[in-house]
Amino acid sequence: MVFEKIYTFNTLCKFKNFSTTAEHLYISQPNVTKQIKRLEKELDTELILRTSKTFELTKAGEAFFDFTEILIKEHEQFNHRLAIIKQEKDQLRLGTTNLIGNSILPNILLEFTQEFPNLRLNLQVERSKQIVNLLVNGKIDLALLSSYINVPSKNYKQQTVFKDKLVLIVPPHHRLAHLSYCQLSDLNEEAFITKEDSASLVKYLKEQLNHPKFLNQPTINISTQTSIKHAVAKGLGIAIVSEQLIENDIKLNKLCKLEIDGYPLSRDIQMIYRSDINLPMAASLFKKHLEKISKEV
């Protein structure tokens, strides 16, 4: 017994009208009639009284309607369980950098995993170049990286999903700590802490700030923004880092943040994936989730 006929009969019993049922199911009225007749033939019994001017079920029809209510509910529950089973076989293979993985992704992943609790998550947190290699070699399906990272242009799609605002940070006792803004020239004699020259953050800052003196001669190079903020808090110098990274430090008065007048600093964070193949289900769902967040921001 094809389930389509059962669902058609159930719908007809609720609307009590062949035309309305056909419109609701996006099929023709003769098709509705044909399905009901085939159903009656399979059951070898009449379900609808055709002598009445109004829609009326036979006793067998009433009993079968009650049965279809149970069957449809069970069918919906089975489809839900089947979707969960399919999810369990799939996993989200995602790669990103330390900053994004620690400061930006956790809340996004929490919301996503609450919506899809049975998807397995495989998150690789590495340096940018290593993430690109994992993507190229098929070890991950999606990467979240700064737009300043070099990615092979052929067969790869780069899609901006959110902005990463950058701010100047100083220790609470610093001469600039009481300000909301400062001039670029105020930083020329400061001990500046940054990542190595090849880092995407440094490339971005040099381009946006027009190669200032303090960036060309940094006092200290540290490999991660997290370690940089700790060094600033200890008074070893000043730095420019992601605002999301230092939210708690600001609340706890461990750091003070400023903006540089005339230089709004905000990097694009991009979602990168193969464009020449279909993404696995988990990656496709996460891609749609990020696109939804991007539209809401």
Q: What can you see in these coordinates?
A:
By secondary structure, the protein is α/β, with parallel strands linked by helices. The chain folds into 3 domains: 3-87, Winged helix-like DNA-binding domain superfamily/Winged helix DNA-binding domain (Arc Repressor Mutant, subunit A, Orthogonal Bundle), CATH 1.10.10; 90-162 and 268-294, Periplasmic binding protein-like II (D-Maltodextrin-Binding Protein, domain 2, 3-Layer(aba) Sandwich), CATH 3.40.190.10; 165-266, Periplasmic binding protein-like II (D-Maltodextrin-Binding Protein, domain 2). The protein has helices at 3-15, 18-25, 29-43, 59-88, 98-115, 128-136, 200-208, 213-216, 225-233, 247-251, 281-296; strands at 91-96, 120-125, 142-146, 156-170, 181-182, 193-194, 220-221, 239-242, 256-260, 266-274. The strands form 2 sheets. Strands 1, 2, 3, 4, 5, 8, 9 and 10 form an 8-stranded mixed β-sheet that branches. Helix 2 (18-25) crosses helix 3 (29-43). The longest helix is centred in the N-terminal third of the chain and has 30 residues, at 59-88.
The gist of it:
By secondary structure, this protein is an alpha/beta fold. It has helices at 3-15, 18-25, 29-43, 59-88, 98-115, 128-136, 200-208, 213-216, 225-233, 247-251, 281-296; strands spanning 91-96, 120-125, 142-146, 156-170, 181-182, 193-194, 220-221, 239-242, 256-260, 266-274.
